[in-house]
Write a structure and sequence with these properties.
It contains four helices and 20 strands. By secondary structure, it is mainly beta.
Length: 285
């Protein structure tokens, strides 16, 4: 079954509680999309089961990020037995065709030799080839996983691991594409293939340099064209780095490596100190 949801969300602080970062669709208010659902306007407090005359209901929430309203959309589609999946994220149509998908891990579906076709109102139809696409699947009786996402990726890489993400990650005014394509993050965490929109070619172009800088690191969030990444090696060694993307370029803006063991161990209160990632000219907390 194809499923698409829409919400407007609030970007939260890095130290906000988990429930503020990961709103669940079941907790959003329901509003009717069609005129035939006028009864829902009068009786919005009734259970959805009472709205038997309504054929279409969307889950929405209005909020703002940096004073500008934004809309997030997600989908819960999964490939069929032949390795085919069709997904809608607003006006974005996404089709995944593959040689088949297998459960190599209990809650991971890995599709091989993938052709991913995408088009939006601003992006002409384009087909991309990937050796693999990884999709997180729910273990019953859990709620279906959000496999596709469109909108701000401030918290898109936390508990919800999306296979396909549409978002303007380099802040050039055009949506880019991020695809979960492997387990090369820290200790098998997701790794991604990044496609940035090329304004001259009017197409998505793979940015291999960005993926190279992310090798062996886990992605936690992307804010204002910056990727926040971290790694862990063994029981003691840790590291973090801040990667900047502008246009089709990528570079490490700041990084730190530290240990939590021995005489050179970092103090516990310094672990959460983010002053190391503040760039010249930026205020320090």
């Amino acid at each position: 079954m194809k499923t698409e949801n829409s919400t407007r969300g609030r970007a939260t602080d890095a130290h906000a509680p988990a429930d503020a970062k990961n709103d669940h669709p079941d907790r959003r208010d329901d509003h009717p999309l069609r005129h035939g659902c006028w009864r829902a306007i009068l009786f919005a407090f009734l259970p959805l089961a009472a709205l038997s005359g309504c054929n279409s209901v969307a889950k929405t929430r209005v909020d703002h990020i940096q004073g500008v309203a934004f809309e997030q959309r997600w989908a819960e589609d999964t490939p069929d037995e032949s390795g085919f999946m069709e997904m809608r994220l607003g006006d974005a149509a996404i089709i995944l065709q593959s040689d088949g998908c297998s459960h190599r891990m209990i809650n991971r579906l890995i599709c091989s030799n993938v052709k991913l076709t995408i088009s939006t109102s601003k992006l002409r139809r384009q087909t991309l080839s990937l050796p693999e696409v990884w999709i997180r699947v729910a273990i019953p009786p859990r709620h279906p996983e959000r496999t596709g996402f469109r909108g701000s990726v401030r918290w898109a890489f936390g508990d919800d691991t999306h296979a396909i993400i549409l978002s303007d990650i380099n802040m050039d005014g055009h949506e880019d594409l991020v695809v979960w394509s492997g387990p090369d993050g820290t200790y098998g965490d997701p790794s991604y293939t990044y496609y940035l929109y090329d304004k001259e070619a009017r197409r998505l172009v793979e940015n291999k340099a960005l993926a190279k800088l992310m090798e062996g690191n886990s992605l936690s969030r992307i804010i204002d064209g910056r990727l926040f990444a971290w790694y862990r090696s063994g029981p003691c060694d840790r590291g973090e780095k801040l990667i900047g993307i502008r246009g089709d370029g990528a570079e490490i803006l700041a990084r730190r490596d530290y240990t939590t063991c021995g005489e050179n161990a970092i103090e516990s209160e310094d672990i959460s100190d983010d002053s190391w990632m503040k760039l010249e000219g930026e205020p320090k907390k």
